[in-house]
Amino acid sequence: MERRDWIETIIPAFILFALWLDGWFFPLILLPVLYVLYVEKKDLAWIGFSTHNAPKAILCGIAIASVLGVIYYPIFLYYSSGNALEATPDLYVLFLDLLWYPLYEEVAYRGFALAHFAVQDEPSLSRRNTAVNLFQSLFFIAIHRHHFSTPLVLVPVFALAFLNGLLFLRKRNLFGCIVSHSLLNSFGWFLRLYVT
Hints:
The protein is mainly alpha-helical and 196 residues long. Helix content is 70%, strand content 0%. It has one domain (3-194). Helix 3 (54-80) runs parallel beside helix 7, helix 5 packs across helix 6 (154-171) and helix 6 packs antiparallel against helix 7.
């Protein structure tokens, strides 16, 4: 195997796997960032940290969160009647769910994975890009195993991953993805705290 194959495919796959294994260890987010900056010698705009298309991406992210909130609400009501949802959070849990995980997971699954395995010059719904988007969406569901006891919750989780993947492939910007993820998580906590 050539050095280029290792740099462009094998090592990013290992990094994605490491990110998938452990999302709470904060310094781990440096792994894809440092890899892109110092091994691939690209700037962070390549994985979506760019002001280009940011306002449009953020508006799309708000729209995605709104649509998914409408989908999530009846699922929440269904599960809240059986008290299958989590208890009241502390500030650390809110920090993780509203800020850290949206940043970490969007960098890992949309920015890093799609930048490395999707084809930038192809349409976002091309066969290859759709397959990569589906794969990262399934990978994303796998880290949400805490929702396996409430399987209907996985519907908006999968939709968030897939729609944010499409948003990233179209706008090449992570800010909208982070906003939609954070807003959907915020809506979920709002419902848990004030509706039940």
